[in-house]
Amino acid sequence: MRIVDIRATTVTVPLEAPLRHSNGAHWGRFVRTIVEVEADNGLVGLGELGGGGESAEAAVVGLREYLLGHDPFALEALRFAIANPTASLYNNRTQLLAAVEFACLDLIGQHLNVPVYDLLGGKLRDRVPFASYLFFRLPGADGTGEVRTPEQLAEHARDLKRQHGFTVHKLKGGVFPPEYELECYRALAGALPGDRLRYDPNAALSVAQAWRFGKAVADLPNEYLEDPTWGLNGMRQLRDLGIPLATNTVVVNFEQLATNVRDPSVDVVLLDTTFWGGIRPCVKAAAVCDTFQLGVAVHSSGELGIQLATMLHLGAVLPNLTYAADAHYHHLRDDIIAGGKMPYVDGAITVPSGPGLGVRLDPQRVAQYAELYRELRGYPYDRDPARPGWYPLVPNDRWADPADPAVMA
């Protein structure tokens, strides 16, 4: 089996409402680039990556000369062919490698008529549990969906629990002043007795602010604080809080993982199938974490159904997955895979069992959302559409005003 072509299609799929975060926002939609790798036996493998609100289509197509004639089974050779650690410093290709790896694993699974999890050692669970991923939200195009006040946040979380069965809840913070987000976080705990909580301000807080926040929530059922401040050295100063610390920003490769093992800063490593360069590197990293008794979770970088499938196959095979995975998925209004969105049942999603990744494209949906992308184009992920000209500092002091019922400019 040899690769004969690679195609890329950029789509934009609407969200229920714009999602705010410490660096800006998802502007009411996700922009994702769908990758199709075709083999000489007629099979097509699927991959997916994001571009921070922008298309990665040209970069994917630019890999064509690297891939023509390559054997999809030769995944280690693929890693060095695309993302040589020195050569790719000039055009970081880790996320491109991930999308192609997804597609090659999909091809191999289809060729052998087995699901990807069987290529990774076999599944240990049929369903992967997820946390609710809660955002402060601007109103959607129809004027609904705003999440700004503690009361709105609590009701939104209760609604998601009723719909999907979540028992773990993660608040994406770093938008409003820490004291206000503390009020919101405590309101969340009060609205969901017996459930577990996570707080993630995307490293927007200073060490001192993060310390004060951690002490103020120490009585709550916290699973962890995720990136409460920037950097391994910053988080190392918070280890005496008594709350586990997690990251998806400063342990995203094996060099950083080695540093964290040698001089511990974080307790839980959030493995992202895109950030780490594929599913297989995440499996390797999870094994290192298992050896040194570090926790692991599955991170979400804003997925449609193809990347969600990679997250599910990863979650299926990790023996040390003791935390619910993250997903933006429930904020989407639709998907580009056949059958539409995968359902949550009791806070979990069933791992696809078909050959390869177990998902196929819906051509009509792909065409619809490719056309929507051509109409709307991209957006700057690191800007807030309700605050023209704004950009954050790290640590930040340019907070949104919680008294302002902001709308998109």
- Give the topology string: H per helix, E per strand: EEEEEHHHHHEEHEHEHEHEHEHEHEH
What is the CATH C level class of the largest domain, in words?
A: Alpha Beta
**Strand tally:** 14
Instruction: Name the CATH architecture of the largest domain.
Output: Alpha-Beta Barrel
- Largest β sheet strand count, sense and barrel closure: 9 strands, mixed
Tell me the strand order in the biggest sheet.
3-2-7-8-9-10-11-12-13
**Tally of DSSP helical segments:** 13
Distance between the termini: 51 Å
List segments where confidence is low: pLDDT < 50 over at least 5 consecutive residues: none
| Proportion of beta-strand residues | 15-25%
Number of domains: 2
CATH fold title of the largest domain: TIM Barrel
Chain-averaged pLDDT: 97
Q: Please tell me what the overall shape is.
A: globular
Secondary structure category: alpha/beta
Percentage of residues assigned to helices: 25-40%
Domain Mandelate racemase/muconate lactonizing enzyme C-terminal: 150-244
InterPro entries: DgoD-like, Enolase-like_C_sf, Enolase-like_N, Enolase_C-like, Mandelate_racemase_C, Mandelate_racemase_N_dom
Pathway: Carbohydrate acid metabolism; D-glucarate degradation; 2,5-dioxopentanoate from D-glucarate: step 1/2
Protein name: glucarate dehydratase
Topology summary:
Blueprint: E1 3-14, E2 19-21, E3 24-26, E4 29-39, E5 44-50, H1 57-61, H2 64-67, H3 75-83, H4 94-112, H5 116-119, E6 127-129, E7 132-137, H6 150-164, E8 168-172, H7 178-191, E9 196-200, H8 207-216, E10 222-226, H9 232-236, E11 245-247, H10 254-262, E12 268-271, H11 279-291, E13 295-298, H12 305-317, E14 348-350, H13 363-376
